[in-house]
Amino acid sequence: MIMKRLTMMKIFHSLLLFTLLSLPGRLLAVSQPTSDSPARASHEECTARRDCWRHRRLEKLLRIQPQEPRKLEKGLLWLEKQLSDLPEPGPEPLLQKVAFDAELPRLSNVLNLHYKRLYPRFGSIHPDSGLAGGIRYWNPNFNGSFLDVQSSAALSAGGYQLYRFQFGEIIRREQDFFLYADLGYRYFPEEDFFGVGPESKEADRTDFVFEQASYDAVLGYQPNRWFGAAVRAGYLQMNTDLGKDDRFPATQELFDDSSASGLDRQPDFFRLNSGIFLDYRDVPGNPHRGGILSFSFSRFDDRGGRDFEFNRFTFDARHYIPLGSIQRVFALRFFTSFDDPDGESRVPFFLQKTLGGNEMLRGFRRFRFRDTKLLYVGGEYRWEAAPALEFAIFYEAGKVFSDFSDLDFTGLRKSFGGGVRFKTPNGVFMRIDIGHGDVEGTRAWFTFGPSF
Length: 452
Fold this sequence. Notes:
Blueprint: H1 2-31, H2 43-63, H3 71-82, H4 92-97, E1 118-123, E2 132-139, E3 148-156, E4 161-169, E5 177-193, E6 206-221, E7 227-242, H5 251-254, E8 269-279, E9 290-302, E10 310-322, E11 328-341, E12 353-355, E13 369-371, E14 373-386, E15 389-401, E16 413-424, E17 427-437, E18 441-447
Antiparallel strand pairs: 1-2, 2-3, 3-4, 4-5, 5-6, 6-7, 7-8, 8-9, 9-10, 10-11, 11-14, 12-13, 14-15, 15-16, 16-17, 17-18
């Protein structure tokens, strides 16, 4: 009995020992996938699967067809294409850069439409002119020659008129020089005048009619996009009359020749103007980096005496700094102008540089401050939310004065605000700015073209 029990215990111990020794092997066997499990697919099967997916992608690529845009999408694409500004011929960008005094305002090209050599124009002649329309004729290589012809006419709802004719070698071709005649006329029936000097009052607002006719020859040298120089010489005629705005008294009723020089006699001038610029912006009409520097000198000779003879010096510096990306730009501008009369001569009030309006000190009315000398600084933060839409906030300051001893940064008038700009890749074609001045409240501006 005892022997049987010992024999049974030995058998039990042997079975237990065998079971314990064989358990790791069984666990290992359980952990290995079977030949039917997807996890045990061979390397060759994985490679075949990748080939299969690659083949399917290639088949899909061959079946892909361009998406046919809907009617609305087609319309938006057409409008986006048309909203690119028509490139101006010849030295027009140069004339803007050096800020020629005789340069007449021009309407913006909003739609790139034309019929043969006729181009419709749309925009504003002047911030106070209201909506304006016009037409431009452009004929390069006139009648098979090397001469170009350009003319334009515009009329606004407020009665503002603008005409211009240019004839000569306007476009730079093989050579780097250009030479042409430039004739212009403008009629502005409601020009505002508040008085001369930094202490002029908003309550003294008056208006006058301003007419100007110019007959000039322009010679320029522009070897590349970054550098250019030009000289303009010609005859300048001007006239003032009673303003057409019934809301305000005429300038002649509230001021006289002592407080508004040139009110009794508007002289004719022989005018000589020269300018030079350095342009290192990435895209001249839509800059995100770089800048531009320009300097001009003008001489005005009174043809009817020596009462109104003076020199003018202007300097304009602009710089654009991308902040991390080109969609965020900090734009800076410094502008100054100095008129230096000969002896006892004076500068006519209608030729004096001004502050206020849609370009400089947007928190003040147009022509709010004027004098023989001007100083302006401004900055804008611009955020391009989309290629065609830009938001901006700005801060600016400036002043007018008559004595060089006041050339400093004290007594500046200030304004700040924000705006929305509608753009093409080549430039701003429309903007809405709201500016708040430090003493005279808030102004809103609807303008065609950039701020600077």
